[in-house]
C-alpha cells in the first residue's frame, strides 16, 4: 500500500451559517474616547502603571459606529479561505476582520475553538458590532478592534519551500498602523502558524495594542493552564490587583466553568519563560497557543456561571454554547498600551494546535499540571521550530492571487503620500467613500457632502483644510481633525464657524459633545435632531442627552412624534421607559417591561435594563431576559 503524501493546501470556500446581515457603518463619527485607567491596586509595578496611563485615546475618530443589525437570523453564505494539511483544517473569514472561525484536528474530528453556530453581532467592540467565537485579532486600542466586522485585504502567497500561505492585511486608522498577517500550515505540521507584523509608518511614536482573542469551549472540567503562579485580576467591581494564581479568594480560578462571576486573569509570566496558554479538558486534551517572545501577555476570561453570565453567552452564541477565552497580547494586561517608535515594525509568530497531556497531572496540583502541559508543548512544537518558522516568514514574497478586497483607506493614504506603497501589500484603489478626499488632493477643495464625507485623521489632511476651509462641511471636517489631535478648543471654534456658515445636525452634535453644561448640550442635540429627525442613531443620542439633563417630559414628547417603527426600536423603548420612570409614571414602565424591551445593542457591562426592573419591581428577582449583570446574578 502506498503511504499518503504530506500535503498543504489553500482554497476558497463558502461557509453556510444561520446569521444576520453584516453590520453597517453609521453616519455619526465616534467622538468619545476610552476611559482612563485609574484602578491600579496592590502589586501593580511602575512599568504597568506607566502603561496604564499611556496612550488612552481621547476619541475614536475617524471611525463611525457599526450597527444596523438585529436578532433576526436566516441562513446565509460567507466567503472563507481554508488552509489544510493532514492534521488541521483552518477556516478564515477575511470579510469579518480576518477571524479564524474554525480549527479542526482532522485525525480526531475535534473542533479546537468555540465555533459559533450562529453569526450574531452584539455591542461589545469599540465601534459596537462584535461576534463571539474563533480567534479574533485586535490591533489599536483597548477593546475589540475597529476592523473586527470589516473586510481585510487577503491574498495567496507562497513560502520558499512551496507551502501556500494566506496573507491578510489592513490599515488601522485610529493608530495609523499597517497590519500584515501571514498564516500557513506546512505539510505534516501539528500546528497552524500565524505571523504578525505591525508597522508604524509615521516618524513619531504611537501607542500600540495587540491581543489575539481565542474562544474555546467551556465546561466544568476544562482547566486553563499557563506558565505563571500569579495573575493580575479584574472582576468589573474592584481594582486591578496582583494575586496568587490559580487560588484566588479561596477558590481555584483555573477552572472557568466553576467561577461565579465574569472576570479577567492576566497571567504574570516571569521573564525568560516560554509564553503559552492552554485550555484542556478532563482527558488532558485541548487547544494550546504559544508564540515567540514579543507576545508577552496571556489572559483567561470567563463570563461566570451566574444568570447574567449565562444570558450573555446565550445572547452571543445561542443556547448550550458556553465558552471561555484564552488570549495573548503585547503587554501584560489589556488595559495597557505600549510606545512604538516611529518607523518601527514589531513582529512575532503564534502557533495553534491540539495539546495532549497526562490527564491525571492536568487535573492534579497546579505545579504538576503546568509541568505536564509545558512538557507536552515542547514535544508538540520545540521552541527552535517556532523560531525557524518566525524566520521563514520574513522570506514570504509578493501576493500571487487576490482572494478578498478590504477598504480603500490605505490606497487613499498612499495617494496622499502618507503611506508608502509596497508590492508585498497591494492595497488596490480607493473606493467611493474616499472620493471626496481624493478631490481635496486634486483640487485643494473638499466638496460639500450631506451627510458629510467619512472622516479622516492625520496632520497632512489638516494642513490642506486649515488654510482653505470656508463652507460648513469643510469647517466641520476641520473640527473633527482638530478634535482627533486633542485640540478641543480649536475644534469647538471650527464647529461654531461651521454652524455660523450653515446650521447642520453634524456640527451641532459635535458642539454638544464639547459642551460640559448638560442643559446646553441637550438643547444643541435637540436642535440637531430637528434638522434630521429620521436619523435613528441621532434620535438615540438626543434622547440620551435629554436623560442626562433630566428633561424627561421633553424626551417623552420627542418619542411621541416618532414613527411607529422607530418607537418599536429597543433603544427607543428603553429610553421611553427611563423617561417615564424619571417622570414618576412607573405604571408605564411596568407596562413596557411586561410587553418586552429587547435592546439588540446592549453594551457589555451595561446595567440599564436590570436597574430599571429593580426600580419598578423592588425586591423582585430580575428576569433572565433582563439580566446582563457581569458582577452579580
Verbal overview:
The protein is of the alpha+beta class. The chain has three domains: 79-393, Distorted Sandwich (Beta-galactosidase, Chain A, domain 5); 440-511, no CATH class; 515-633, Serine Threonine Protein Phosphatase 5, Tetratricopeptide repeat. Helices cover 29% and strands 27% of the residues. It has 18 helices and 30 strands. The strands form seven sheets. Strands 18-24-25-29-15-14-13-12-30 form a nine-stranded antiparallel beta sheet. Strand 14 and strand 15 form a beta hairpin. Helix 11 (505-513) runs antiparallel to helix 12, helix 14 (552-560) runs antiparallel to helix 16 (570-582) and helix 16 runs antiparallel to helix 17 (586-595). The radius of gyration is 25 Å and the shape is globular.
Amino acid at each position: 500500500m502506498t503511504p499518503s503524501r504530506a500535503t498543504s493546501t489553500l482554497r476558497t470556500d463558502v461557509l453556510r451559517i444561520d446569521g444576520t446581515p453584516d453590520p453597517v457603518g453609521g453616519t455619526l463619527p465616534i467622538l468619545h474616547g476610552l476611559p482612563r485607567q485609574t484602578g491600579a491596586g496592590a502589586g501593580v509595578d511602575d512599568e504597568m502603571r506607566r502603561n496604564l496611563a499611556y496612550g488612552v485615546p481621547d476619541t475614536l475618530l475617524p471611525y463611525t459606529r457599526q450597527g444596523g443589525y438585529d436578532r433576526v437570523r436566516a441562513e446565509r453564505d460567507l466567503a472563507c479561505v481554508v488552509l489544510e494539511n493532514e492534521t488541521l483544517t483552518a477556516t478564515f473569514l477575511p470579510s469579518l476582520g480576518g477571524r479564524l472561525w474554525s480549527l479542526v484536528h482532522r485525525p480526531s474530528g475535534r473542533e479546537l475553538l468555540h465555533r459559533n453556530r450562529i453569526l450574531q453581532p452584539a455591542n461589545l467592540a469599540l465601534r459596537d458590532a462584535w461576534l463571539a467565537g474563533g480567534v479574533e485579532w485586535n490591533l489599536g486600542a483597548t477593546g475589540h478592534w475597529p476592523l473586527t466586522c470589516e473586510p481585510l485585504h487577503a491574498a495567496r502567497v507562497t513560502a520558499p519551500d512551496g507551502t501556500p500561505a494566506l496573507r491578510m492585511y489592513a490599515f488601522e486608522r485610529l493608530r495609523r498602523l499597517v497590519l500584515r498577517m501571514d498564516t500557513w500550515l506546512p505539510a505534516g505540521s501539528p500546528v497552524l502558524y500565524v505571523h504578525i507584523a505591525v508597522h508604524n509608518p509615521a516618524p513619531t511614536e504611537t501607542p500600540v495594542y495587540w491581543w489575539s482573542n481565542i474562544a474555546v469551549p467551556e465546561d466544568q472540567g476544562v482547566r486553563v493552564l499557563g506558565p505563571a503562579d500569579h495573575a493580575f485580576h479584574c472582576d468589573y467591581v474592584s481594582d486591578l490587583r496582583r494575586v496568587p494564581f490559580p487560588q484566588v479568594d479561596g477558590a481555584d480560578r483555573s477552572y472557568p466553568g466553576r467561577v461565579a462571576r465574569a472576570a479577567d486573569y492576566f497571567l504574570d509570566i516571569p521573564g525568560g519563560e516560554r509564553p503559552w496558554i492552554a485550555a484542556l479538558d478532563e482527558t488532558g486534551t485541548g487547544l494550546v497557543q504559544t508564540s515567540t517572545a514579543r507576545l508577552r501577555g496571556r489572559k483567561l476570561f470567563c463570563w461566570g456561571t451566574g444568570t447574567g453570565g449565562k444570558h450573555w453567552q446565550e445572547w452571543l452564541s445561542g443556547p448550550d454554547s458556553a465558552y471561555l477565552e484564552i488570549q495573548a497580547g503585547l503587554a501584560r494586561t489589556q488595559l495597557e498600551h505600549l510606545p512604538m517608535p516611529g518607523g518601527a515594525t514589531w513582529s512575532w509568530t503564534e502557533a495553534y494546535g491540539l495539546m495532549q497531556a497526562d490527564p491525571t497531572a492536568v487535573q492534579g496540583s497546579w505545579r504538576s499540571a503546568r509541568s505536564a502541559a509545558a512538557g507536552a508543548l515542547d514535544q508538540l512544537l520545540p521552541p527552535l521550530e517556532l523560531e525557524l518558522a518566525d524566520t521563514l516568514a520574513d522570506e514570504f514574497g509578493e501576493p500571487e492571487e487576490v482572494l478578498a478586497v478590504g477598504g480603500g483607506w490605505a490606497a487613499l493614504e498612499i495617494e496622499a503620500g502618507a503611506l508608502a506603497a509596497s508590492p508585498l501589500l497591494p492595497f488596490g484603489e480607493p473606493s467611493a467613500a474616499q472620493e471626496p478626499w481624493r478631490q481635496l488632493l486634486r483640487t485643494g477643495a473638499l466638496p460639500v457632502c450631506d451627510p458629510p464625507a467619512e472622516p479622516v485623521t492625520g496632520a497632512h489632511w489638516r494642513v490642506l483644510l486649515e488654510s482653505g476651509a470656508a463652507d460648513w462641511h469643510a469647517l466641520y471636517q476641520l473640527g473633527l481633525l482638530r478634535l482627533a489631535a486633542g485640540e478641543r478648543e480649536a475644534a469647538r471654534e471650527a464647529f461654531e464657524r461651521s454652524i455660523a456658515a450653515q446650521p447642520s445636525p453634524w456640527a451641532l452634535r459635535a458642539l454638544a459633545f464639547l459642551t460640559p453644561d448638560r442643559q446646553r448640550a441637550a438643547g444643541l442635540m435637540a436642535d440637531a435632531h430637528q434638522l434630521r429627525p429620521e436619523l435613528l442613531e441621532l434620535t438615540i443620542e438626543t434622547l440620551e442627552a435629554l436623560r442626562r439633563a433630566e428633561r424627561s417630559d421633553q424626551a417623552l414628547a420627542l418619542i411621541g412624534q416618532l414613527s411607529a417603527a422607530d418607537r418599536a426600536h429597543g433603544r427607543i423603548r428603553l429610553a421611553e421607559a427611563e423617561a417615564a420612570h424619571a417622570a414618576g409614571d412607573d405604571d408605564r414602565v411596568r407596562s413596557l417591561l411586561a410587553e418586552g424591551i429587547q435592546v439588540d445593542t446592549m453594551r457589555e457591562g451595561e446595567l440599564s435594563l436590570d436597574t430599571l426592573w429593580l426600580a419598578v419591581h423592588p425586591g423582585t428577582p430580575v428576569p433572565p431576559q433582563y439580566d446582563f449583570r457581569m458582577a452579580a446574578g
